[in-house]
């Protein structure tokens, strides 16, 4: 079932992942929105901006993989590892969990499960 719709899944989840470009361009606003930071220091802004760019690039790679089957497996492995790691940090770490943060981590975990199911041939 997933195999028949993998291109659409990659486009939709890749575009959703690529929305982190907003964090790259407006890190202060996104840190306040997702994590509740009111006055992040300059280092936190730099890291958040860089993180936003890196996750945007993973999203762009997923969209590219929808059209280029030769990069599909490595792109999905990279994305699944990143998304599961993020969800693990949120749900198992000592970070305060806002509702938005739990929603982001839950969404990432769900996307990663889809990728793993595809990679496992389910």
What does this structure look like?
By secondary structure, this protein is an all-alpha fold. It has one domain. Helices cover 78% and strands 0% of the residues. The protein has six helices and no strands. Helix 5 packs antiparallel against helix 6 (99-119). The radius of gyration is 15 Å and the shape is globular.
List SSEs in N-to-C order.
HHHHHH
Number of helices: 6
Shape, per Cα inertia axes: globular
- Based on CA atoms alone, the radius of gyration comes out at 15 Å
Largest sheet: none
Mean pLDDT: 92
Strand content: under 5%
Distance between the termini: 8 Å
- The percent of residues in helical segments reads over 70%
The number of E-state strands comes to: 0
Helical/strand content category: mainly alpha
How many structural units, i.e. domains?
1
Unreliable runs? none
Would you kindly provide a brief summary of this structure?
The chain is an all-alpha fold and 122 residues long.
Features:
122 residues, mainly alpha, globular
Layout of SSEs?
Elements: H1 6-18, H2 21-25, H3 27-35, H4 42-67, H5 72-92, H6 99-119
Helix pairs in contact: 1-4, 4-5, 5-6
């Amino acid at each position: 079932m997933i195999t028949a719709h993998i291109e659409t899944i990659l486009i939709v989840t890749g575009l959703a992942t690529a929305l982190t470009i907003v964090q790259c361009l407006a890190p202060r606003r996104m840190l306040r929105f997702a994590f509740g930071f009111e006055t992040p220091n300059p280092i936190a802004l730099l890291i958040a901006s860089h993180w936003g760019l890196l996750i945007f690039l993973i999203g762009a790679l997923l969209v590219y993989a929808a059209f280029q089957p030769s990069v599909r497996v490595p792109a999905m492995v990279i994305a699944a590892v990143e998304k599961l790691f993020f969800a693990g940090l949120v749900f198992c770490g000592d970070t305060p969990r806002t509702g938005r943060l739990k929603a982001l981590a839950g969404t990432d975990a769900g996307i990663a499960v889809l990728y793993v199911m595809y990679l496992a041939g389910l």
